[in-house]
Amino acid sequence: MIIFGWRVVFFTLSRGVFHCPDCGGDREYRRRQGRNFFTLFFIPVIPLNKTGGEFVECDTCHGRWNLGILEVPTTAQLALMPAMLLRMAIAQVLRSGDYTHAAARGRAVTVVREAGDPSYDDGALTADLGRPFDEVRVEMARASSALAPEARESILRAAAEVALTDGPLSVNEEGTLSAVGADLGLTHVQVTGVVSLARQSSGH
To answer: Is 66 within 8 Å of 50 (Cβ atoms)?
Structure first.
């Protein structure tokens, strides 16, 4: 007697680490999708059409979510996010002024290192200065929502203080600070207050 039928087999497309809502922490995941198979004696033999969409499955609790869950920052990413946003903010403001100023560049590298990126150096700063402004703005706006307003204000103030290292802010630097503040989700009043505090601390 020949026994045949159909069965769904799930394949792993990729692996990674994500923040699992059920586990409440960072866990390894598998990105998977099902495919129908023709079976003979309950053994998958012939692959047929794909079934259902792709999904994310936690390796620990085996919970399943849609791919949007991968956009939620992991705990490790959140720890690095202040330094990442800081380096982007500083680079954008620095290149709107005198980005060759040695003291300003040195201050920028030091600030980013102190924020949690000890490997940051002048070469990395040069690379950041070369990134398209529009691309950086989109990335900052997407990432900044994970931080508290106080953290975002601190990032803007650090960027302003770096810009003030070589003297009073230029019109271009002020405009860039306003744009960076908006990308960080700060209001115009918040941006004005933060820049004012940076001016006071720098003596400009």
So the answer is: no
pTM for the structure as a whole: 0.66
Q: Which two tokens stand for residue 72?
A: 């939620």
* 121 phi/psi in degrees, rounded to 5: -145, -175
Please answer whether residues 17 and 10 qualify as being in contact, where contact means their C-beta atoms are separated by less than 8 angstroms: no
User: Using CA atoms, how far apart are residues 69 and 60, in angstroms rounded to an integer?
Assistant: 16
Distance CA 147, CA 112 (A): 17
Q: Number of C-alpha atoms within 13 angstroms, CB side, residue 184?
A: 34
Helix (H) or strand (E) segment spanning residue 157 = helix 149-163
Instruction: Provide the residue count of the chain.
Output: 204
Q: What is the pLDDT of residues 37-78, one digit of tens each?
A: 777 666 776 677 677 788 999 999 999 998 888 887 777 776
- DSSP letter (8 states) at residue 69: G
Pairwise CA distance, residues 186 & 127, whole Å: 26
- Residue 132 to residue 151: CA distance in whole angstroms: 24
Tell me how far apart the alpha carbons of residues 79 and 142 are, in angstroms, rounded to a whole number.
16
Identify the CA nearest to 164 among candidates 190, 202, 134: 202
